[in-house]
C-alpha cells in the first residue's frame, strides 16, 4: 500500500468518527438511531442527554443496562413524537435496574408511553406522556407503566389521553406517586396488584375515573395491599369511558372519583374529591363487576379500608352505568358520595360482622353521604347509617424508598 | 514519523494476510470486542453469500420454526474443538463457552439481508446483528440497523432488523440472554447432511457436539406445525411454543400477562381460555377473552395474530406480515375446542 494512501485514509477515518461522538444523541433525522445506539452502548452510570426539539421517531426504544439516566431539556422542550411509529408498541421499554428518566415528553406512542418491566429502582421525574388528539380508544393503554418493579418513584409528571390508565403501577412493591397530573385518561392513576404505595398531592381531573386501587385476578402477582391515597385533588372526572370494551377499566363508569376494589389495607384521607358525577368514592369487590372468576388463588374481598378526613363535595348528580343508575330509584339523586357494595367474605363473619381489623371504616368526611347497597344480598339490606361504619383503623406507615445508586429515588 | 507509519502499514498488511489465510473459525468475546465484519468469524468459506459452512460448522433445522415474515432462514452451529453441549430434555441445551449459533435471513430476488449470531462468552450470551451489503460480499455489525424494504410475493413491506436490545426482547429468560431454538424437542428430526440423512441429535452426538442425550425414542419431539398427518393439538402447541412462549412464559418478558403458551402447558386458563385480558388495551379489539373455545373470531389471540398494526400485532417483534397458514392452524385449533 503506498504510504500516501494511508496518510489520506487516516484523517478521513478520524473525521468520520468525530461526526458524532459515541453516546451523543443528536437532533433531527439521526435522532432515532443515535438515541437507540446510546441506549445499547451505555455503561452503568451513564447519563444520556437528549437534545431540545421535537423529534419524529418511527420505532420503539429499549434499554437493558442498569443504572442509566435519560435526561431531556424539559417535558415540553424535548419531545419525542411517535405519530409515525411503524414498529414496536411502547415508546420506551426498560428492563434494567436503577433507571431514571427526567425532563422529556413522549407523544402519540402506538402502545404504552414508557414501560418498565421487572426493575428495582425506577425514578420518573417531570416526564410527560400524551396522546395529543385527546381521548380516543385508539390511544395507547398506559402512559407511565412500571410493572413488576420495586422501589418506584413517579413525581411531577403529566399523562393525558391514555385509553387505560395514565399512571399505572402494576404488580409492584414500594411505590411513591406524587405531585403528578393525570388528565383526560380513562383511569387517571391506577395502583394495581401492588403493595406499599403512597399516592399523594396528585391532581386527577377530566378522567373517567380519578384514582383506582385495584387487585385483579389472573395475574402472576396478586395480593395488592397497603396503599395510602392522600392530599390529592380528584375533581371533575366525568370523561366518557373510551377504553376498548374487553378492558377492565371499560367497566368504570364516567364520573368516578376514587375506587378501591378487592384490595386490603387501604387508607384514603385528606383528599379533595369533588364533582364526580356518578360517585366520589366507591368501595367494591371484583364480584360486583359481573366478570367471570376462574382464578382460585385470588381473594376478591375488600377489607380494612379506612376513608377519613376527606373534603367531598358535589357529584353523584348524573350517574352513568348500569349499576349506578340502578341505585337511583333507591337513593335518588345525587347518589351518596361514598358507595360500598357490602360484599364480604362469609367465612370471616362473626355474628354477621367482619373482625375489627378487616372492617370498612368511614369517618369525618364532612357532609358526604354514605350507602352500603348490599350488592351480594340483592339490595335487600341497604344501609345508609354511617354510624355503623364510624370506626378507625391504625394509620398505615409511610413508604420509604431506599437510597441506592444515582438512579435511586432517595425516599420522601 | 515515516518509520512509524511504515511499521503500522506493514502490521496492517500482515494482519490482512493472516486473516486471508486463516481457514479456522475464530472466537471473539465481549471483553475484547466483537468484529465489525461477519467474515472475521470465519464461519463460511468460498463465496460469502453461499454460506458454505467451514469445517466444524454444522447446519441445523427445527421441527417448527418461528415465523419471520416468510424469510428463508439458514441455521448453523459451531463449538470449540473438544467441547460439547449438555443435553436437557425440556430446555435449550447447555452450550459451552465459545459456541456460535448463526441464523441468516434471505428472500428470493433480494438475497441475504442479515445474519444474526448468538455467541456464548464466559460472560453469557450475546446477540449480534450483521447486515449484508448490497453486493453480498460481507455483512457488518449494526447494533441499531435501519429497516430494509422487501418485496415478497408482490407485497412490499419494511423488514425490521432487530437492534441488539430487541434481541433480548425475545431471548431473555429470567433476565438472562438464552438461545431459543436448539431444544431437544425441536432438533429431534432428520436432516440431510453432506454424508447422508440422519437424526440431528444423533448426528450431534456422533460428531461430539452433544453429550448426555438418551436414545432418540426417549427424546421429546415437537410436532411439525404444517404436517397435517400430525395431531392438531400437537401442531398448535408446537406453533404457540415457538412463536409465543419465548415471551409468554412465567420467566419471560410477557410474564406480567399471566398468559403462558409453553409446550406442555395444560392449564386452560394459562393458555388463555376464558381468560380476561389485563393490559391489552385497544389490542383486545373489543373482545372479552384471550381465547373462546370454539370461537376463533371471538379470541383476542387470533385477533392479534391477524393484525399488522403496531401495538396490536403479536409477536411484537420480527413480524410485519400476517402468517396466514399459522393463523389458519390456530383458528382450527380453537374451533376444535368447541367440539370437545
What is the secondary structure topology, with strand pairs?
The complex is a heterodimer of chains A (412) and B (340).
Chain A lengths: L2 H16 L12 H11 L5 E3 L3 E4 L4 E3 L5 E3 L6 E4 L10 E3 L4 E9 L6 E4 L2 E11 L11 E6 L2 E6 L2 E3 L4 E6 L2 E6 L2 E3 L3 E6 L2 E6 L2 E3 L3 E6 L10 E6 L2 E3 L20 E6 L2 E6 L2 E3 L4 E6 L18 E6 L2 E3 L8 H10 L6 E3 L19 E4 L6 E3 L40
Parallel strand pairs in A: 1-4, 2-5, 3-6, 4-7, 5-7, 6-8, 7-9, 8-10, 9-11, 9-12, 10-13, 11-14, 12-15, 13-16, 14-17, 15-18, 16-19, 17-20, 18-21, 19-22, 20-23, 21-24, 22-25, 23-26, 24-27, 25-28, 26-29, 28-30
Chain B lengths: L1 H20 L22 E2 L6 E2 L4 E3 L11 E7 L6 E2 L13 E8 L3 E11 L2 E9 L6 E3 L6 E5 L2 E5 L4 H8 E2 L2 E2 L6 H4 L2 E4 L2 E4 H7 L3 E2 L20 H13 L55 H6 L18 H14 L3
Parallel strand pairs in B: 5-16
Antiparallel strand pairs in B: 1-2, 3-4, 4-6, 6-7, 7-8, 8-9, 10-11, 12-13, 14-15
Brief digest:
Helices cover 9% and strands 35% of the residues of chain A. Chain A has 412 residues and is mainly beta. In chain A, the strands form 2 sheets. Chain A has a 19-stranded parallel β-sheet that branches. An 11-stranded parallel β-sheet of chain A has the order 3-6-8-10-13-16-19-22-25-28-30.
